[in-house]
Structure formats: structure tokens, C-alpha cells
Design goal:
This protein is mainly α. It is built from 15 helices and no strands. It has one domain: Growth Hormone, Chain: A. Helix 1 runs parallel beside helix 6, helix 5 packs antiparallel against helix 14 and helix 8 crosses helix 9. It is a multi-pass membrane protein.
Length: 395
């Protein structure tokens, strides 16, 4: 088969698997721009709690990563994805209940938090499971491509889901958010049911903590770079409101669109230049975008800052991820993906309360300066890891 049709066939096979990531993250994106305002304005609760509602999902994903990794490596990626899609549907039930309990703020918040915990656990199964499923179908030599397309699916879903959620709630009411999440979970299960599973790789399974230790430096760089995304995703609506600017949800769409464009255009650079070089360049661009958001005098320049942040953040995950997965054998690939992804969960999990506290003390503008500082730390770490790798290769 000629090279170009062969590449196209591989890409289509990958896309058919990461479709489930798209469905899972659409469930995450739909409430993303709605929930902070609902908790802070409609329920009358604090900005810290508004951030917690977003972050608790990432904390649940963080805590469920070891279990999800064991399921992927021992029971198969397809089973993990299907269990995750079922969890997505269940989270919609709790979110639907919260919409009818707005007159009881703390009860509504409790239902919302439970739904977010379930959704976070489902995310760890769907996201890592789809990566393992894709690599198992097309081969380990296409790891960077699978991770890149999985990211396109996830952030594309967030870009579509955020304004879609706002539109649905404005037109139909808060209940439509929970109902749509239930429907998407059922659709995903129906599509996944008949797809062929990837073979389970035999070999020695390393303890999760040992795998975690191997990918720790790469994950730390990812965590620092992810704070910018978590800050934008959680607080952009409140930041825009504090400045009196309209169309905050559009910022999430621009971030996602810029993210996707960068992966489509520059995704092959990882195999050509190496993961560390790409990560260094991307973290530099992300830092510039976050500084622009900090200094933006108008909504238009803030939008440009969000676009640069999305463009920069785009390849951080696959660039450092390829280097991380290479630290272990194929039999432990699911554990490596899970352990590495754990760091973005940790980052996004602490971003809500931490950045909420920064906003409460110094104002909403300051949160982007804080996020830019974190990205610079990730950049410095990536430079260090790159130099260490080159020194090792020469030795």
C-alpha cells in the first residue's frame, strides 16, 4: 500500500477510537462554562467553592488512575472505555437532580459534587483507555499520533461543549445539561459495543508506584504547564464578568480551536525533533499567551492571549508523554499512560481552589500571572530533562 493511503488508513483507525474520548470530554465540556456561575451566582456560594466544583472532577480522576490503569492492562482497553462511558451517563443523573434542587443550595451542591466525582472517575477510564486501545490497534510506533489525536478529541469536545452548554441552559434550562450527558453516555456505549478490542499485552506488570516514579519528571513538567489551562477553564467566565466583557464561553472555544490547529499542523514535529524540544517551544508560547491575558486591556486581546495559550499548551501532553511512555515496556503501557496523566489531574485538581484563593486575595487578573509563572517552571524543568537526556545519550 502506498505511504500516503497507509497513513490515512492509520489515522482513520485512530480517529474511530478517540471518538470515545470526544464523547467523554463533550460530557465534561457541556457544564464547564455553566457550573462556576451557577454555584457562585445562582446558589450564592463562594468563588473557592465555584472552583472546587470544577476541580473535584480532576481530583476524582487523579484518585482513580491506578485502578483505571490496572483495568486497562489486565482486562483490556475496550472494557475500560465502556465502563467509563457508563459512568459518564450516571454522572448525568446526578447533574439532572441538582438542576431541580436549586432552592436548596447545599443539597444542589452535594448532588453536583457527587456527579462530578463520578464523571472524574469515568474520565480516567475513557481517556487512558482510548489511548491504550488506539496504540493496541495501530502499534506502538504511532504512540505520538494516538496521543495527539486523543488530545484533539478531548479539547475539541471542550471547545464545542462549553458554548453548547451555555446555549442549552439559556434556551432550555439547567436540566438540559444533565439530560444531554445521559444521552451521550448511551450513544457512546452503543458505538463502542461492536468495535474490535485491542489485544492484551503479556509481560511483567510493574507496581503502579514504580511506574509513577519512572514518569515523575515528565509528569511534573506536564502538571506545571497544565495550570494555565486549568485557570482558563475554571475562571475565564468570572474573569470576563469582573472586567464587564461579554462572550466568555467564546474564549474556551478559541483556546480549543487553537489547540487543535497546532496539533494538526505541528503534531509530526514530536517524532522529528523529539519530545523535549517540542515541549520547550510550546511552554514558551503558552507563557506568552498567559502574560497577554494578564495584561489584556480589552476582550479582543484577551481572546488572542487565550489563543496563544491553547496553541502553546497543545503539544505539551504528547511531547512529554512520548518521553514518559518510553520509560517502560509495552506490558506496562496502560500504567505509564495512567501515571503520566495523573499529573494533569493533580494539576487541574488543585488549580481551582489554589487559583480561587489567588483571585480572592489579588483579583482575577493576577491568576494569569500566577499561571504564567508555573509555565515558566515547567519550561525550566523541560530544558533540564532535555540536557540530561543528551548527556546520557552521549555517555
Amino acid at each position: 500500500m502506498p505511504e500516503s493511503p497507509r497513513r490515512l488508513a492509520i489515522t482513520l483507525q485512530i480517529v474511530s477510537i478517540v471518538l470515545f474520548t470526544f464523547i467523554g470530554y463533550l460530557n465534561i465540556g457541556i457544564p464547564l462554562a455553566v457550573l462556576p456561575g451557577y454555584v457562585h451566582n445562582d446558589l450564592g456560594l463562594s468563588a473557592v467553592l465555584a472552583g472546587l466544583v470544577i476541580s473535584v472532577q480532576y481530583l476524582a480522576t487523579l484518585l482513580s488512575r491506578p485502578t483505571a490503569s490496572r483495568i486497562i492492562d489486565n482486562l483490556g482497553s475496550k472494557k475500560a472505555v465502556m465502563w467509563g462511558l457508563a459512568g459518564c451517563g450516571l454522572s448525568g443523573v446526578f447533574m439532572l437532580a441538582c438542576s431541580f434542587l436549586g432552592h436548596l443550595p447545599w443539597v444542589s451542591l452535594a448532588c453536583l459534587l457527587v456527579g462530578r466525582l463520578v464523571l472524574g472517575s469515568a474520565e480516567s477510564l475513557v481517556g487512558s483507555g482510548s489511548i491504550g486501545w488506539g496504540i493496541g490497534r495501530v502499534g506502538a510506533e504511532h504512540t505520538a499520533k494516538v496521543i495527539s489525536w486523543n488530545g484533539i478529541a478531548s479539547y475539541g469536545a471542550l471547545a464545542i461543549g462549553a458554548p453548547l452548554g451555555v446555549l442549552m441552559v439559556n434556551r432550555l434550562g439547567l436540566w438540559s445539561m444533565g439530560a444531554s450527558i445521559i444521552a451521550l453516555g448511551l450513544i457512546g456505549l452503543a458505538l463502542a459495543w461492536s468495535k474490535p478490542a485491542a489485544p492484551i499485552v503479556a509481560g511483567k506488570r510493574l507496581p503502579f508506584l514504580q511506574v509513577l516514579g519512572k514518569v515523575f519528571p515528565h509528569g511534573a513538567g506536564l502538571a506545571l504547564g497544565s495550570i494555565g489551562f486549568g485557570t482558563i477553564a475554571t475562571f475565564i467566565t468570572l474573569y470576563y464578568a469582573s472586567r464587564g466583557w461579554p462572550s466568555a464561553a467564546l474564549t474556551l472555544s478559541v483556546f480549543g480551536a487553537s489547540f487543535i490547529c497546532a496539533r494538526l499542523v505541528f503534531g509530526n514535529l514530536i517524532n522529528r525533533l523529539g519530545g523535549f524540544r517540542v515541549a520547550i517551544a510550546c511552554l514558551s508560547v503558552e507563557t506568552l499567551g498567559l502574560l497577554m491575558l494578564w495584561l489584556a486591556p480589552s476582550a479582543e486581546l484577551a481572546l488572542l492571549g487565550a489563543a496563544l495559550s491553547g496553541f502553546g499548551f497543545s503539544l505539551v501532553f504528547p511531547a512529554l508523554g512520548v518521553e514518559a511512555v518510553n520509560q517502560v515496556s509495552a506490558a506496562n503501557r496502560g500504567a505509564a499512560v495512567g501515571a503520566y496523566s495523573l499529573f494533569i489531574d493533580l494539576s487541574l485538581g488543585i488549580t481551582g481552589p489554589l487559583v480561587g484563593a489567588v483571585a480572592a486575595g489579588f483579583g482575577f487578573r493576577s491568576i494569569f500571572l500566577f499561571a504564567a509563572g508555573a509555565a515558566v517552571c515547567g519550561l525550566v524543568l523541560s530544558v533540564y530533562l532535555y540536557r540530561q537526556t543528551r548527556r546520557y545519550d552521549r555517555g
